[in-house]
Amino acid sequence: MSILYLVATPIGNLEDISLRALRILSEVDLIAAEDTRVTGRLLTHYDITTRMISYHEFSDQDRINELVERLGSEDLALVSDAGTPSLSDPGYRLVQATIAAGHRIVPIPGATAMIAALASSGLPTDRFLFLGFLPRQSRARRTALQAVASLPYTLVLYEAPHRLNKLLADIVSILGDRQLCVARELTKIYEETWRGSAKEAVSKYQQGRVRGEITVVIAGASPDEEKWTQAELMSELETLLARGESSKAAAESLAHLSGWKKRDIYRLALQLKNDRGKEP
Fold it and tell me: Are the beta carbons of 153 and 125 closer than 8 angstroms?
């Protein structure tokens, strides 16, 4: 029976690849690559001449069927542009199809930005939740954060550099001023690992353009977090309502963070709206 190897590749530094991974890439009949140009540079660096075929997030079912059919007589390797394939990556669709067809899956472990960032963050690593990329739309992103706001697990996620400022602002608003780590360009020349509070991160990254691959690690909810004062609650409530949140949505999101009951927050929200209507 043929094998689909899931081969982890470097996330930056080309030396971060195992001897086993190099052997598998040189021995398989075909490599399915997210971007053949990116993988081509890795193969050239190590004098590997194995044939490649493209497989990425826009590949249709015909390409998946073609690869599964090839597994009838050939061993294949699946690689992403960087890190472990199938992890926050379209490779999972090919893995599902391969399993359904009865072929063997063999992972070749190696680099992943998620684990590298978590290990160096200084935050608890015994229990964590990987969120991948959060939604691009502000409302959906905030909803995703609200869903994990009360969980005690360290949170790990990826973010595009041009959305980092918005993400950090939402973290402060939804999760509060937690400790976090921003890991940028891991293993590359301009690698940076910054640690501090969420509010400090907003201040740091609001100036200038952020570049590179980014992983954010956030402290989980503390079981002994104190209930917000009414002044703190009203301040955050005013911010959410000014952004266009409904009274109900604002109450639901703040109930996770503040320790206040949702119905009490909703009552205060209606009071705020009523007071605004009386302003000259």
Answer: no
Q: Assess if residue 224 is contained within a domain.
A: no
Write down which residue in 196, 218, 240 finishes a domain.
218
State which residues form the domain around 138: 114-218
Instruction: Using the 3D structure, point to which of 78, 111, 144 is the last residue of a domain.
Output: 111
For the chain, the C-alpha Rg in angstroms (whole number) is 23
For residue 108, give the H/E element and its range.
strand 104-108
Q: Is 35 helix (H, G, I), strand (E, B) or coil?
A: coil
Q: What is the pLDDT of residues 69-79, one digit of tens each?
A: 999 999 999 99
Spatial separation of the C-alpha atoms in residues 15 and 10, rounded to whole Å: 7
Whether 259 and 188 share a structural domain: no
Q: Are residues 12 and 97 in the same domain?
A: yes
Global pTM? 0.78
Contact 26, 50 (CB under 8 A): yes
Sequence-separated (6 or more) residues with CB below 8 Å from residue 258: 227, 228, 232, 233, 236, 265
236-243 long-range CB contacts below 8 Å, 24 or more apart?
236/173, 237/265, 237/268, 237/269, 237/272, 238/272, 239/173, 240/173, 241/269, 241/272, 241/273
The whole-angstrom separation of Cα 130 and Cα 164 is 17
From residue 192, how far is each of 47, 97, 117, 185 by CA, in Å? 31, 38, 10, 7
What CATH number corresponds to the domain at position 199?
3.30.950.10
pLDDT in tens, 154-166: 999 999 999 999 9
